[in-house]
Specification:
Strands 1-5-6-4-3-2 form a 6-stranded antiparallel sheet. The longest helix has 21 residues. The chain folds into 2 domains: 139 residues, Phosphorylase Kinase, domain 1 (2-Layer Sandwich); 201 residues, Transferase(Phosphotransferase) domain 1 (Transferase(Phosphotransferase), domain 1, Orthogonal Bundle), CATH 1.10.510. The protein is α+β, with helices and mostly antiparallel strands. The N terminus is likely disordered. 41% of the residues lie in helices and 18% in strands. A hairpin with a 2-residue loop joins strand 3 and strand 4.
Length: 361
């Protein structure tokens, strides 16, 4: 039977013999750390037979063809994710190791490659230790990623719910540092939300991004990506309340000015309102949007956003342009008004730029 060789990052190209032998068909593991070989053995049945009642394996959640698991072994605790590869084009994409519209963006090899890239460029991701592939008719049908277990971490959403006002301010400070690092290397995480950011319980400054399957590198205009990520994160944390929109917009303006290290433009201002107000991904291709090189048709974006049932309650509300006309301009709001404010901002930037990853700028 023909088996197409996986195109993998160099760190995971060397196979470990006899790791996968069980199941309906032989599997294929690539290990970045030989110590996880025993974990791979535990996951044979999960990989090949879709069987999750395996000793030492705890299923955390199953959603949209992905199963998250906690694996306990002699070597400690590990996180594992099984990814079903459907439709056929994603199976081919996983085999070829490519991410594009034709072959899909969210197969196991894509998540592996993207996560390694984020870890290398920003230090804000947990590098995978292994990738396992189960084939059928020569093509990958399911894949499993193994990563270290983040002991003592909780999701940003859970940390937010547990924090008081001061704690929430600290979390927001760290989130804007995280977005700033993404901005500096031209990254856009398309699933950037409180569930996909992990926070160390004893140190909010330790944040890790997970679920990097849908990621864009080298975006031509990082300001667009950053505006969307700032707005979406604030909407996810605070909820959508029209009465609070001016307050959220002021927060978003300050965060974006910090992230980009420049004044907020009128276009960025409108993008912030769109991201704060609407769930955009149902009717707008965010991937295409952040790859834009020219000016944006913001009115068209709002019309398309309102087509989604997720935004039905906002139909009939004032348009973004009307909202902005009734508020102080972005330049007025985010301008530094005192030397104390400037010193505070400089200290925050120094904190961000001394974080994980390569030297900034």
């Amino acid at each position: 039977m023909l088996a197409i060789s996986l195109c993998l990052p160099v760190s995971l190209q060397a196979p470990i013999d006899d790791v996968v032998t069980a199941g309906r068909s032989a599997g294929d593991w690539r290990l970045g750390d030989a110590a996880v070989g025993t974990v791979a053995l535990q996951l044979n049945a999960v990989l090949a037979n879709d069987a999750f009642e395996v000793p030492g394996v705890e299923v955390l959640r199953r959603r949209k063809g992905r199963t998250a698991m906690r694996v306990s072994s002699e070597g400690g605790q590990f996180f594992a994710k099984r990814i079903e590869l459907r439709p056929l084009r994603k199976r081919v994409g996983a085999a070829l190791g490519v991410q594009n519209r034709l072959f899909g963006y969210d197969h196991g090899v894509a998540e592996l490659d993207n996560t390694l890239y984020v870890a290398r460029t920003t230090g804000q991701a947990v590098a995978p230790l292994a990738l396992g592939t189960f084939r059928r008719h020569g093509l990958p049908q399911a894949q499993v990623l193994i990563q270290p277990w983040l002991e003592g971490y909780l999701t940003l959403g859970d940390a937010w719910q547990q924090a008081d006002t001061v704690g929430r301010r600290r979390l927001l400070d760290e989130v804007q540092c995280l977005i700033r690092r993404f901005h500096q290397v031209g990254l856009c995480h398309l699933d950037f939300n409180p569930t996909n950011v992990m926070v160390a319980a004893d140190d909010p400054g330790e944040m890790k991004v997970i679920d990097c399957a849908r990621l864009i590198r080298d975006v031509p205009r990082p300001d667009i990506a950053s505006a969307l990520q700032v707005g979406k994160m604030l909407r996810s944390l605070y909820g959508r309340h029209e009465s609070e929109l001016p307050t959220r917009l002021n927060q978003a303006r300050e965060m974006l000015a910090f992230v980009t290290d420049s004044p907020v433009s009128a276009e960025q201002d409108a993008l912030l309102v769109l991201a704060l107000r609407y769930q955009l991904s149902k009717t707008i291709s965010i991937r295409r949007l952040v790859r834009a090189t020219g000016s944006l048709d913001l009115r068209s974006l709002e019309v398309r956003a309102l087509r989604s049932y997720k935004n039905a309650a906002l139909r009939g509300c004032p348009e973004v342009s009307q909202v902005l006309a009734a508020l102080p301009s972005a330049g007025t709001r985010v301008a530094a008004t005192s030397s104390a404010a400037q010193r505070a901002e400089e200290a925050a930037m120094a904190h961000c730029d001394s974080g994980p990853g390569p030297a900034r700028r």
